[in-house]
Structures are given as C-alpha cells and as structure tokens.
From TrEMBL:
TPR repeats lie at residues 172-205, 215-248. It comes from the Eukaryota. PROSITE patterns: TPR. Gene3D superfamilies: Ankyrin repeat-containing domain (1.25.40.20), Tetratricopeptide repeat domain (1.25.40.10). The lineage of its organism: Eukaryota, Metazoa, Spiralia, Gnathifera, Rotifera. This is Tetratricopeptide repeat protein. Transmembrane segments: none annotated. Keywords: Repeat, TPR repeat. It comes from Didymodactylos carnosus.
Length: 273
C-alpha cells in the first residue's frame, strides 16, 4: 500500500492466522517484505503478543525489523519509533478508495476468537512451571526419551515467549535447548534451524548480556554443519564462537583451545575435498 505495508502485515495486524498461513503457504509471500522503515510482520505479532503468529513467522524465517536493518546495513530505528509505527500500522479498506487507521488498542478489542488466549502467571507460578519443565526435560534426556524431552522443551519455550516476549536471552536459551534435543535425535536440519533461532535472538540483544553459553550456540551449529559435510558453514561458526570466547570470556582457556582444534580439523577436511 502507500505506506509500504504488505498483505501479510494486514493479516498479522488483525491476528488472522488462517489468512497468514494462506499467504505464506499458498501465495509464497515474503514474510520480511515491506518498507524497511516500517515494522516487520514479526514485530507486529510480537507487539500484539500473539504467540501463535510469532511462532508461525519465526518458523518461516520471519525476522524482526531490527535484524533486517542490520543485515541490509540500513539505519536502526529506535524502540519508541518502532512502537509509534506499529500503533498506527493497520489500514482497513472501506468502500471506494478511502482508508482508515485502526489503532493497536482497537485491534486488540477486535481480536478473533481463534487467537490464543494467554494465561498470565505471577512470578512464583512462572518460575515453578519453568523449573518443572526444565527438570522433566533433563530427566527425559538422560533416559534418551528425546520425543518426551522435546515436548517439555517446547512447553517451556511457549511459556517463556508468553512471559518475556520473543527477544529475551531466556527465549534464546530455550531455542538452544530445543536444538540440543534435535541434535541428540540426529535430526540435524531441525537442530540447525533452532540453533539459528537462538543465534538470531542472541545477536539482537544488548551487549550487556554476556551469557557464557552464548558461544556454544555457534559451536553446536558448527558441529551440525560439520556432520552434514558443510565445512564452510562449520568453519564460519567455529570462528565466530572462538571470537566470542576470546572477546568476552578470555579466561576460558580450555574452550578456546577446543575451538582452535575444531577449526584446524575442519580446515584439514576442506583441503581433502
């Protein structure tokens, strides 16, 4: 439209999952399309706190506009500007060529009955459920009941996104934990996909978040790529992990040495091709 929004922006703004699925699966629309100075479809779903649409978009490579701007080397927009844009995003066609703006508050009042009803937990209830899911997943992993472990990890992921929103270190770690389950199942494509989701979130977080496990996201994705004989991608991820270790966790000598050995081994395998 004249504002640079696309059909998927309208579908997501109105919390219309069926239409969004149709646009993605049948029409093959670009889930990250539209004016780069406007919010992405994922931004809108996150702002509307629609968990179903957030997961649908993420599973189809949907990106936050922050990441799109970063990758295309365009300027980043501020959080305040992003919110203002989202609040005035949805344009509903009326008779003729006239259009009227529906605010986010009005959209929430008109949400479809098919939208997910999200239960708000107090902090104690939330922490208790997260602890239970985490403990159950660990127990199932020890027993190598990976499908059961995956079920608990996915419940944990849903709860974290509902509680914190998408861009949060706990959500990144949750996708990492899901990837680890797939990795152990030898479902390497699903493992790589979830490691990538964890990395995408991590890379959008402020630099003040320095979780010692963050480099492992790249290390494990590199191991998946190495297993699939995608040595260029493996080398790239091992190198990124090593850079993070040296920059933020320089005293972790054993981990740094291990990564250097991985890189040496991958470089040797590339030469043999």
């Amino acid at each position: 439209d004249i504002y640079g929004d696309t059909s998927i922006h309208y579908a997501v703004a109105h919390n219309d999952k069926s239409l969004t699925e149709f646009l993605i699966n049948e029409c093959k629309v670009d889930v990250n399309g539209g004016d780069c100075k406007r919010p992405s479809a994922l931004d809108i779903a996150s702002f509307n706190q629609n968990l179903e649409l957030q997961k649908l978009l993420v599973n189809n490579n949907g990106l936050s506009r922050y990441q799109i701007n970063h990758e295309s080397r365009k300027r980043k927009i501020s959080q305040d500007e992003l919110i203002r844009n989202i609040e005035n995003l949805s344009i509903t066609p009326h008779k003729g060529n006239q259009q009227s703006v529906i605010t986010n508050a009005e959209l929430k009042a008109e949400r479809s009955s098919a939208a997910v009803e999200q239960v708000t937990l107090n902090d104690d209830e939330f922490e208790k459920q997260i602890s239970e899911f985490n403990s159950a997943a660990r127990d199932q992993m020890k027993l190598k009941n990976y499908q059961e472990a995956l079920k608990y990890r996915q419940h944990e992921n849903d709860l974290l996104i509902n509680h914190f929103g998408y861009l949060h270190p706990a959500v990144a770690r949750s996708y990492y934990n899901i990837a680890v389950v797939y990795h152990n199942k030898c479902d390497y494509d699903s493992a790589a996909s979830n490691y990538t989701k964890a990395i995408d979130i991590r890379d959008q977080l402020p630099l003040s978040y320095k979780d010692p496990d963050f480099p492992n996201y790249n290390t494990n994705r590199a191991l998946v790529y190495a297993t699939q004989h995608q040595y260029d991608k493996a080398l790239e991820n091992f190198t990124q992990a090593l850079s993070m270790r040296k920059t933020y966790f320089p005293i972790q000598y054993d981990e740094i040495q291990r990564l250097e050995q991985f890189i040496e081994r991958i470089e040797g395998q590339r030469k043999e091709l």
